[in-house]
Amino acid sequence: MTAIDVHHEVTGPEGAPAVLLSNSLGATLEMWDPQVAALAERYRVVRYDTRGHGRSPSPQGDSTVDDLADDVLALLDRLRITRAHVVGLSIGGMTGLRLAARDPERVDRLVVLCSSAHPGNPDAWRDRAATARTDGTAALADAVVGRWFTPGFAADHPDLVDRMRQGIADCDDEGYASCCAAVGALDLRDQLGTITAPTLVVSGAEDPALPPEHQEAIAAGIRGAALLTVSPAAHIANVEQAQHVTDALLAHLGGTR
């Protein structure tokens, strides 16, 4: 499949080291709002909408993780960025893992949040894709956003949760389904040992979508990887534990732990 010209935003000083932020399935680049200001003080921050999300075009048919990685490389090439720190959550983390394994010369440091090298349950992902195509992503929105935040955080931030729920409902049906196929078919377990980028893996302790054992497996498979668990936090840990995650990103990208 041909790389897609994804929608993106760039913040921070030109010429500074680049940090690429890759969003979760069903979210847009706006999910990184809590981190951008702090990162942009010292980095050139590149956010983008994954294919089929936000303002990025949708593919026709199923995508693979290589397609998602190709989109990133095409974006970096357009911006004349030869090497970047890569930070991804959920499907964004899967994209980051594949990039670091396949194109190590393009990845400086890697951060993988609330993600997995092998999500499993391919039938469940096929069912989710089928629902998106037949009933639309709005039919999935309540169940998906229910896994994104702990009940206490959701109760305290109803406007934010409603906005994220609407974002899922607004996601292109075919684009969402196409990315579901990439997740359902993913198995990067045998590639983890080839990753040389210094890696930080972040877990949400209460994440029901991709529980901490998925991140523990990633950290165990990458030589020298650091593992951080934040709590309380479900799937969108960078929002629920914004300051904790921002501090961890700055420390790791700056070369400390």
From TrEMBL:
Q: Name one GO molecular function term.
A: 3-oxoadipate enol-lactonase activity
Which key words tag this protein in UniProt?
Answer: Hydrolase
Primary enzyme class = hydrolase
- Alphabetized Gene3D superfamilies for the sequence: alpha/beta hydrolase
Locate the AB hydrolase-1 domain: which residues?
17-240
- UniProt KW Manganese keyword: no
Could you tell me which InterPro entries the record lists for this protein?
Answer: AB_hydrolase_1 (IPR000073), AB_hydrolase_fold (IPR029058), AB_hydrolase_sf (IPR050266), PcaD/CatD (IPR026968)
Q: What EC number(s) does its UniProt record assign?
A: 3.1.1.24
- Name under which the protein is recorded: 3-oxoadipate enol-lactonase
Q: What species is given as this protein's source?
A: Klenkia sesuvii
Gene designation per UniProt: pcaD
